[in-house]
Structures are given as C-alpha cells and as structure tokens.
Design a protein that fits this description.
CATH architecture of the largest domain: 2-Layer Sandwich
Low-confidence stretches: 1-20
Helix content: 10-25%
Structural class: alpha+beta
Shape: globular
Order of helices and strands: HEEHEEEEEEEHEEHHEEEEEHHEE
Radius of gyration: 19 Å
CATH topology of the largest domain: Chitobiase, domain 2
Number of helices: 7
Mean pLDDT: 90
Length: 307
Amino acid sequence: MRRLAPFLAVACALAGCGVGPGEERDGTTELRVTRDFGQQRLAAATRDSVPEGLTVLRLLSSERKVETRYGGNFVQSIDGIEGEGSGGGSDWFYFVNGIEADVGAAEFELFPGDVVTWDYRRYRAAMGIPAIVGAYPEPFVHGKEGKRLPVRMECDDDESTACREVRERLTALGVPVTQAAFGNTGTPDLLRVVVAPWPEARRLRAALALEQGPEESGVFARFTDEGRSLQLLDESGGTARTAEPGTGLVAATSIADQGVLWLVTGLDAAGVERAARALDEDTLSDAFAVAVAPSGPLDLPLREEEG
C-alpha cells in the first residue's frame, strides 16, 4: 500500500467528481505550496471558513493555477511548475496535517483547522513519505479527517528533561496526552510520540525503519551502528554528513498497522533534549524532518551546501 499511496496522493478525479461547496463552517484551513522537501515555500493562503464539501483539489484550484494530465486524473503543474510523471524524477505530492494522503485530491474533504501541503520534490530515494513534521502543531490539534487523534507519549524515562519538555509543549496546545509504558504497540488511529535516545527508541518495531533509510521510513536520516551513529542524508539518499554527539532528531513515520509515530530522539540524552526544544512551529514549519545539531536545526534532507 505504501508504494501505491504516493500515486494516489497526487491523483485527483475529474473536477466534476468533487462534492460542491456547502454550508460554511467556522475555522480556518491553510494551503502551503513548497518545493524540495519543504525547503522553499512558493505560496500560501488561508481561508477563514471551510465550506462543507471543500476538497484538497478545490482549495488548490481556487488559490493557484493548476493543470492536470491523464485526462484530469493527476496534477500536472502548479503555477507552471510541471511534474515529470512516472518517467521523470520529480512530481507533486500532498499532505493534510502532515500525513500523506491515500486518496485523490478531489476525494479528500477538508475540515476546519486542516493544513494542506503540496510539495514538488524528487522521489527517487523515497516514493512514499508517510508523514512530515512541517505542519506542527498538526496533527496534534485537529487530527485527521475532522477527528482529533488520541495522543500517547512513551518516554524511556518519564522524569527526563526531554519527556517533561514535550509533555508541557503538547499540553500548552490544549492536546490531551496520555502516558504509556515504553514499548507498547500502536493502533492505526493512535498518534504516538516517542521520546528517547535512539539506542532505546530502536527497540520499537515502528521506529526501526529509520535504520533502513528513506525508502522505508520516509525520513532522510539513518541511524547505524546500533544507534551510535546518525547519518544525515541528501535528497538522493546518500550520506551528506555524519552527525556529531549531542545531535537530536524530530521526525515522523508510520507503518501500516500502527498509525503515525513522531520521534523525538537523538544520539544521546543531550540530543533528545535539543529535539524536544525544537518542538515548535517556527523551527518545524514546512520541514519534512529536522536534525538538531549543537550549532542549530537542519532541515532534512540536507542540501548540497550543507553537506
């Protein structure tokens, strides 16, 4: 399913298939158009109300110039930036509240509070990216498909500075947070937040994809040597830099039977604390994932000049 999801995510049915706008609902919805894994914002718009039946495609088409291909079934271009299709290496993909969509844009109905991100990126190293952190504080506040997701924190040490920091930040957003024993399994409708150094976090099956690279995890960082080393990757999936001690990572991923997993992790306790302090809108905005080095945050994948 993960292999198919990206094509479904960029797919949109013929415009006539969408549900027409209905009664206005209070609350905003936000559109962001970015490129290169969120590292360049091209456009943004906010609506102060959300009519019933507003879809991702209708929102995009109302704010930007959009062209389709394959008889209207795929987004070809936004504001003249064209996707290269299956024979190329770059295309448009979309997320709602930081979660990769698995239906066409004309079928995905929006709700008050939703943040829609369209990103133009290379996909050779990772066709599917199940979740990104750049819509923070979503999906914690408004969840998915109009329903708030239950949020569960798991810390390797419930009294650690990093655990307290993350709990306080989520609570300040008005997010109800439950605490669970470290290592419990997830469910598809549960939003998990794991706070732990990677040598501990890697014990979780849902997290282990980060040791396999972006094709499996959707995250352009890879832990190696049983968690003692962290490679920061470029957009081709190659190692651009090996992180120094004290580096943290804020990333999101998922596996099919356990839902979305946010990781506030790092090489050591100092790295996890840096990652916890990076859990704010200014630092995470538009980012796919963020490494937090002692010198400051780095959006992932790394650009060539950052390697």
